[in-house]
TrEMBL record, chains A, B, C, D:
SUPFAM superfamilies: Chorismate synthase, AroC (SSF103263). One of its GO terms (molecular function) is FMN binding. Transmembrane segments: none annotated. Homotetramer. This is Chorismate synthase. The keyword NADP applies. InterPro entries: Chorismate_synth (IPR000453), Chorismate_synth_AroC_sf (IPR035904), Chorismate_synthase_CS (IPR020541).
């Protein structure tokens, strides 16, 4: 339980940080979609470690191999199996923590739940597992591209350093121009400096990833429990290190009055639109055709390059020493993960919406 | 799709605001649990309309009828069917909006999704549906009580008026002492005044509900996608008017450094505990035995007692007039709903955790 | 777990034989379908007890009440809640078996599973629960009728008395002309006599229901585990008293050679057809457009009007006396239940097939 | 949809006959189970092609590679990923049927469903996919062995040649002593001769696999839709070439009277047992602790070594020539597949039954 995501466009992942391989099975991808392996590889590059001075220096190529479900370059409707071998395992980096519970990691909770754990690099709890999601998300993105739907995430905050501008005021096409993935080049530079200084302190820091989904048709969402934003929220909260999710007006919106917050409907040409979008493109849990936007809070990474006191399985006091190669801040590498999970949600809800009306059968 | 919640302890709801009845089927409640109907009724009273001057003045008794699954006062393991008849329907209140799209309601999106809609009082999109959840949540609470698990929600913010104190500094037993359900009697009074003034302006305002879950055993949660906080987040985002969810350090935590944010493990007597709890009782998506706490943002209610411009199904400009009897602020009545959904999540994950270890089989 | 059936067109039932009411929630019915309540009632009449001398003489009107999901005569896409009150409960008929395990009933297994049970008339294990399925199946039938799909079941065997003719040689429109629901009037008469003589012996007898589904489009089915016939099989095996399921050539087909059994493809007009249909309209778990046909074996009802030796909860030897009013043979009343479950499967797979191809999105 | 099986102990498979690899992800295996890779390999050998003169002569080693979920020889509770590379693909064997629909194969139905298909050796519809199930089933068997549960299948019929004896009269430990997997050595010899003569006729023939499950505890099964036998039936009907399933008294039982068919309860020592077992170990969809037994009908394999007339995608008449290396009768190799699927069902229901009673929480 817990390794699958989605209902019709559904993925199931397996794999530990330092096991033989990670993998994902993608079910429900409609047949006839051109599968561009290079695009999947490009997405993997955006997530992979070692891509810049502000990410972990681990080297993993994250090479994908498609095992099934694609024939002569197109999806066949059968499950797409993908594996990603773990090349740079360096298990000895982790032997020193075999029976220790690292603070704010999942060591203790996995041990309590299962009575046994793969302690190498966090095992299944490692963010390395998200590589499988990015591969699957790339397939979902190709499906969405077919419908004109675009997903763009970017770093909007690092520590206390936040973008003031809304997504409409930014040129999101510049997001990939810098290593922190912030579309404002000036703020990006400050963010990079901040992360670099945190890294030099052998510490870590949190951040926020914002995301915009454009051109979603109206009608996606499955109330009452599987509202579109509830599933987006779950998708984001299921990413390592995430502590919060808000969409549209979010937590700030609670201060507003209804008369300000309501989004007036107007007709523009053939289409019904809203003049403001505090709703974040979703009303009653169903997309209304406006931009969907949301924000995701990431805590500071728990692995720090400092000594920390903790306990081991026996309950003895021990020192956990910071070793290995870790990210001082996860948000630059989290951008493609947020996009991948958003793509998976939208692809799934697109398929779910095919049987809503009798006239469409 | 979308009307069920949970995997083993699972509910399915039906019903519209102004249909014949609402209902819920509860599956997976372990056999032998004493079902106290009066407790369910008490919970229903906390949610029902018309309970104070700061809630809607609609009168609905929300009387429950248990149709199955309980025999001689105990659960039998078979599904518990509950119905709640809609007494005070007053459908004529809604005839004036039959073909109009009320701003920031679900009228337009339901129409786009289904091509047809029950316009009376929002139909299925009405928060009235949450009555069924509160009934089911009451059963889940009885199960949790059997394990000593307690869930307490309270109003921590109305508009810009926020409690400064953390839940540890508050006496949560005072929550039900005032009509706004804020455990600080002084702030509660201010909140009530604020809501009352908003009501007199024929407007609405948002708020925040905070929630604490105590005595959860370590080991609950189903990584990687169904992390305990991801499911809690989905549960909360599935409540009407919710725009955001954060747990533990939440959005504020992004400003912290790892060295501050990490929760050190220590041994206290027989138990492994943490000295701080920025993790919010959940690490790697699995409960660690510390208090679980989270915050839920509610937007200002979309129904305001003012004229608003909008369009109808034909796209013509129309005026939507505020009529009927509505809540100026939902958070006081949202407190039991938040608790109910939290109880459903914890009950479900408690059952899911029964088969984690071979030694327990 | 276990009270829901279907994935997109999905039902959840609740209710015990002698509880307050039975009920069903139907999710996923496409919006805009005209819901003919009279048709549902007609289907209920076909299943209800007391309809002829060869069925139980219990009187239950099985009156349905639609609580939600239908507005101005049409489905709205939201869940359709239906309840059926238990009018003629006569619980005292069952007090004599409160702690006894009736042979070949579910008394012992429910007790072992749950440690508690509603002993009145079998509780949840009673075939009375199928009333809820027939109501839901009627809605599914209305959806299928919209696509021209027809489902016709009939009694093909009672005890050792079997119809020799295949369904193609029979006039299925005559099925409802007699009380045993066998389309051959001569054999029907013999079956009725046989059941009546068994009834006079205070005994029961088994039978077979055959079913044909016509006009199903090619392409329905979800290999590899959810093949169309696997789901049909599960649906049938989930009906009380069913011991076997076979489709197409079935158990007899094992004696054939591939060269005989293979169904040759030919083109007829625009359509690809097969000249024989040993496949039973399903190849590789997917419908091919030919008639789907299958057979369902029902054991003799366990409740007999004779004294039987058994044990009680304490393990003491006890006598179970046949009381109450029961069916000497279930197959006449099982015909609408088989049809209902078949309709639910086909409706569900029809919706699932909407997203198979990219070109259809 | 359709590539997963099970609820708590759950598998998801991918892979085509002539793609790069097959694979399976096993979720929910309780942590701490010793995983004996050699046992998995032994099970794979029982299913693999080329094992005797009466099976296909294709050579596939079906070597498994465990990619995750096992650490230091034990399951960790995280998903177990297994891949099986396709070594002996010989795709050119299939080029001659690229656009032809082979009679009684899934060529036509996959094409209708998806508009595209991997024609090489049946693609996803090939029984080769069951290799992944046997690997997963081996893990389930190891879990069941831990609880003392045993599953034994055997060939009970080939063509018209059927074992007369019931499983109680046979020595099932002799099943693996001959290549047809029939525990009666005399009948086995006749079956082998029959299959060999059919093979020489360049034809195929059907058969029946019987299966017995011993030592299942009482209480497994999830009524009303997920009865234990309904899920077993679905599991079996989901195996390639299966046309029928019956358990306990099955189709023959319909001829019996209730007074004969009912299984009397008696107390033996501490345990409640039944003196007969027409119920097949399942009452009301829940195991009663007696032996569970069932029969599965397999049609003659559709691939025959003869020329057959058919049509191609354009609807033109074409000749399909029998080429490649195929099984004249599938039942000998189906024995481990039936056992694997039965093991998966029982393992899943064992876990599901952990939360039935309040006293067990």
């Amino acid at each position: 339980m817990g390794n699958s995501f989605g209902k019709l466009f559904k993925i199931t992942t397996f794999g530990e940080s330092h096991g033989v391989a990670l993998g994902v099975t993608i079910e429900g991808c409609p047949a006839g979609l051109e599968i561009d392996e290079n695009f999947i590889r490009t997405e993997m590059q955006r997530r992979k470690p070692g891509q810049s001075k502000i990410t972990t220096q681990r080297k993993e190529e994250d090479e994908i191999e498609i095992l099934s479900g694609v024939f002569e370059g197109k999806s066949t409707g059968t499950p797409i199996g993908i594996v990603i071998r773990n090349a740079d395992q360096k298990s000895k980096d982790y032997s020193h923590i075999a029976d220790k519970f690292r603070p704010s990691h999942a060591d203790y909770t996995y041990f309590e739940k299962y009575g046994i754990r793969d302690y190498r690099g966090g095992g299944r709890s490692s963010a390395r597992e998200t590589a499988a999601r990015v591969a699957a998300g790339a397939v979902a993105k190709m499906l969405l591209a077919h419908k004109g739907i675009e997903i763009q995430a970017y770093v909007s905050q690092v520590g206390g350093l936040a973008l003031e501008k809304s997504y409409q005021e930014l040129d999101l096409s510049k997001t990939e121009d810098n290593i922190v993935r912030c579309p404002d080049p000036v703020v990006a530079e400050e963010m990079i400096e901040l992360i670099d200084s945190v890294r030099k302190d052998r510490d870590t820091i949190g951040g926020v990833v914002s995301c915009v989904i454009k051109n979603t048709p109206a009608g996606l969402g499955e109330p009452v429990f599987d509202r579109l934003h509830a599933e987006l929220g779950k998708a984001m909260l299921g990413i390592n290190a995430v502590k919060g999710f808000e969409y549209g007006s979010g937590f700030e919106g609670v201060k507003m009055r209804g008369s300000q917050h309501n989004d007036p409907f107007v007709k523009e040409g053939d289409q019904i639109k809203t003049t403001t979008n505090y709703s974040g493109g979703i009303q009653g849990g169903i997309s209304n055709g406006e931009d969907i936007y949301f924000r995701v809070a990431f805590k500071p990474v728990a692995t720090i390059m400092q000594d920390q006191e903790s306990v081991n399985e026996a309950g003895d006091v021990v020192t956990v020493s910071g070793k290995g190669r870790h990210d001082p801040c996860v948000v630059p590498r989290a951008v493609p993960i947020v996009e991948a999970m958003a793509a998976l949600v939208i692809a799934d809800y697109l398929l779910l919406a095919k049987s809503n009306k009798l006239v469409d059968l």
